[in-house]
Amino acid sequence: GLKNIAGLGKGTSDPYAIVTLLASGPGEKPRILGKTEVIKNSLSPKWTTSFLFDYSFGKETHINVSVVDEIRKQSDKTMGSAVFEIGDILGSRGSTKAKKLKRSGILYARISKAPPRSAGKLALRLRGIKLKNVDGLFSKSDPFFEIRRTYDGGAGGGSWSPVYRGKHMNNNLNPKWEPASIDVNALCDGDLNKRIQVAVYDHEKKGKHNPMGAFDTTVNELVKSVGGKFELKKGSKTYGTIAVDECKIIGADTSSVMQPPSAPAVATATAPAAASYQPSIMPVPVPVADFGNMNLGGQPLPVPVPPPKKPTFVDYVSGNCDLNMCVAIDFTGSNGDPRRPGTLHHFSPHGQMNGYEKAISAVGGIVAKYDSDQQFPVYGFGAKYDGVVRHCFQVGNSREVHGVKGILDAYKGVFKTPLIMSGPTVFTEVIQLAATQAKQRYQINPLSYSILLLLTDGAVTDVEATRQVLASVADAPLSIVIVGIGNADFSAMQFLDDFETRSGVNRDIVQFVQFSAHEHNKASLTRATLDEIPDQLVQFFHSRGIMPQADSNFSASKIVIDDYNEEADIDLSMDYGSDGEIALNGDVGCYIDNSYEAGIGKLHVMPPPIAPSGSAPVMAASVPAQPFTFQVQVPPNVTSGQQIQIAHPQTGQPLIATIPAGVPPGGIFTVSA
């Protein structure tokens, strides 16, 4: 559980969570998405609030979840913070990720796709009748009710998570609770026949509420049961009755949800602004105690009525789809002698990445999040071994390497083998191998999909042979991303952009991107290379009638718990207004270091300055910028006296630098800006 920071003799902390969407660079600003409700006297809070925001496969999106103790008449205190990347959560079992907090406790975040349209609000009024007293002989229970949903596709009895929690009624076994207004999308994803649960508890000031019984139902059943009653059960025993005095859906978009006959839509409420995000996802921060004794395994997804709409990419990656990646690297002689600075395979002693390293770390870093075993085949082509040109050979000491770092290590290690860089540039063999392996995985798991990341420094030698191979593998569960490294003429590669039209194949599986256009912008590269993959994946599965599936073997024990990251999981400086509003204290300084040089597996959050006690919030922009010194490597074919455009390593802003006299191509010079 969380660490109690209420202080000696002051009871137990009252935690709530603040969710902040972090900026992806200095040109953007972070944005507080909102805060959860406060859970009184609890070190294992179970919040019901969800948050909506956009998601894109080709862009890293980070959120900071700050857990805060509400202190009456004083400033609230932070209990711990954790940063989550949305792709990490979606790519994890059960779309759930866990992180240890600095002081104590573990924070869980779960994501699900938000329906694209509003299903309206459920207006609900419940009443308890002759509830059983669970508060002892000399007092009466203080009952409140929760409305819960499942995330596992089961019919109840699986993982129940609260969506709404009402106020308790003191000393009352026949409570008439206040009317509830519940978002139908949040409750059941707009599926009015999905099982939900109503649970009643006896409120306890110390936070350990006593169960008073529950019953399972659906939104449709509740609507049809107005004036009726449900038995409140605890095990096999009846603990009273719950009467439904009112239940109707208001403000629903009737094109997106089926209304029951007895509940005509009343279009009086407008859809929330967040409902316009398409697609969106909802992270729900949940502490570790909620998962300890829960069965999170699900049943197969029920067949919905009416027939399901076409699933989205988020549906598949959170629906047991396993993405696999393999990498193919060009070792033809046109890359130049790797021992010479300025050539494409040269490894800088100053830690600067070459183009191949940047493309692997950027593109591979995103795709790897969705690969369950983190094992990646790495191949090379265009080099001689034993006097024979190999157009497909293993890179590294094993058939697969672990993680993106393993790919980079294997790439560097290949130059310690008796390799002779040669030619010509032939893609056909690595494409055929990638397609064969993709089909083999598909035979084992029909929800398996592969991505080939192919890096080359020049145009393919035989365009027609390449076109024929691409057409022959278009039926494979495979997407091919080709990145052109260097400044060669890639005009001959443009046939890839209209491959589907010219080949007559009714499926586009290839995307070509020239690295030089994104050399100074990692986010731009990942968007350009991965933008088409979601549609390609959905088209492949949907055209074959393959739908997302629930992970029936998922359980809490299979959730990987990440350690606290001192550099990333920082406590953001917040300004708590007397009106309940929360603002970042100097928000322009809080962003993710998303540069190529940030490193593999490393995350740096640049925190905003902290305002001095009693003073107004300090904006980072008010602090004079100090000159920053960094080194630049001269590109090939550029001589002293010429000007080049570079990106500032800290701000990403474009700069013009003049090559100093005496510095040759591949040489290093210093810039201060």
Gist?
With 673 residues, this protein is α+β, with helices and mostly antiparallel strands. It is built from eleven helices and 36 strands. The protein has a six-stranded mixed beta sheet, with helices on both faces. Strands 3-16-7-6-28 form a five-stranded mixed beta sheet. A four-stranded antiparallel beta sheet has the order 2-1-4-5.
Task: Summarize the structure in words.
The chain is of the alpha+beta class. Helix content is about 15%, strand content about 30%. The protein is built from 11 helices and 36 strands. A 6-stranded mixed beta sheet has the order 22-19-17-25-26-27, with helices on both faces. The chain has a 5-stranded mixed beta sheet with strand order 3-16-7-6-28. Helix 5 packs antiparallel against helix 6 (about 405-415). The chain is elongated. The model is unreliable at about 155-160, about 255-305 and about 610-625 (pLDDT under 50).
Which features would summarize this protein structure in a list?
single chain; 673 residues; alpha+beta; 6-stranded mixed sheet; 5-stranded mixed sheet; 11 helices; 29% strand
Question: Which secondary structure elements does this structure contain, and how are they paired or packed?
Answer:
Layout: E1 15-21, E2 31-35, E3 53-54, E4 62-69, E5 77-85, H1 86-90, E6 96-100, E7 106-114, E8 121-129, E9 143-150, E10 160-165, E11 180-183, H2 184-188, E12 196-202, E13 210-217, H3 219-224, E14 229-234, E15 237-250, E16 280-287, H4 313-317, E17 322-330, H5 355-367, E18 375-376, E19 378-381, E20 383-385, E21 388-390, E22 393-394, E23 401-402, H6 403-413, E24 420-421, H7 428-444, E25 448-456, H8 463-472, E26 478-484, H9 499-503, E27 510-514, H10 522-530, H11 533-543, E28 561-562, E29 574-576, E30 582-584, E31 591-592, E32 605-606, E33 629-633, E34 643-647, E35 654-658, E36 668-672
Parallel strand pairs: 6-28, 17-19, 17-25, 25-26, 26-27
Antiparallel strand pairs: 1-2, 1-4, 3-16, 4-5, 6-7, 7-16, 8-11, 8-15, 9-10, 9-12, 12-13, 14-15, 18-23, 19-22, 20-21, 20-24, 29-30, 31-32, 33-36, 34-35
